[in-house]
Design a protein that fits this description.
Blueprint lengths: L1 H6 L24 H54 L3 E4 L5 E6 L5 E10 L8 E6 L2 E6 L2 E10 L2 E10 L2 E10 L7
Antiparallel strand pairs: 1-2, 2-3, 3-4, 4-5, 6-7, 7-8
Protein name: IV_pilin_GFxxxE: prepilin-type N-terminal cleavage/methylation domain
Keywords: Membrane, Transmembrane, Transmembrane helix
InterPro entries: N_methyl_site
Length: 183
């Protein structure tokens, strides 16, 4: 009873907080020490976890760039080799332009396509472009090198290089030109 009378009045700062019926202290919030310990533990976890997360992110960015460079050079290679394979005449100029003349089913010239590496979109990265019937369309991005040469009669070697930052990829193949010109 004595305890109940003492705590029934206004709370005094110097007195101890009340005890519940089971002997536990009645909580009045977090102490400064508990708050500092929680902040210290959170800081340690953040200091350990943040470099792991940023390292994972950098690795994913590097892998994305590598895959995009590989895809670009493979796509460009497929497109150029398909054009050379089915062409009636192929010419690669010193200025880096591949001219491919194709024929339709009846043996009539179907026109000349041109392939060149340039930065026509102005983003600072060279791309491989195809000019077909006056229309210029991109074939593959980030193509930094393009070379074609006839190594034997009707056999062409196609070399392509792509780059993005530190990532580099190259692609080379020999293509047998199947069609003959109708001279």
């Amino acid at each position: 009873m004595d305890v109940l009378k003492r705590w029934s009045g206004p709370y005094r700062r110097n007195e101890h907080p009340p005890v519940s019926g089971r002997g536990f202290m009645v909580s009045q919030g977090f102490t400064l020490l508990e708050t500092l310990a929680a902040l210290l533990l959170s800081g340690i976890l953040l200091a350990v976890g943040l470099p792991l997360l940023t390292g994972q992110w950098r690795g994913e960015v590097r892998e994305k760039r590598q895959l995009e460079v590989l895809y670009g050079v493979m796509n460009a290679g497929r497109c150029v080799t398909d054009a050379v394979r089915s062409a009636a005449e192929v010419e690669f100029s010193r200025s880096g332009v591949l001219r491919v003349r194709s024929w339709d089913q009846t043996g009539v010239s179907a026109g000349t396509d041109e392939y060149r590496v340039a930065d026509l979109d102005g983003d600072g990265n060279p791309d491989l472009y195809r000019k077909h019937e006056g229309e210029i369309n991109p074939v593959a991005g980030r193509i930094s090198g393009f070379q074609c040469k006839e190594v034997a009669q009707r056999v062409w070697q196609v070399d392509l290089q792509a780059s993005w930052g530190d990532e580099r990829a190259s692609w080379s193949t020999l293509v047998y030109r199947r069609a003959d010109s109708a001279k």
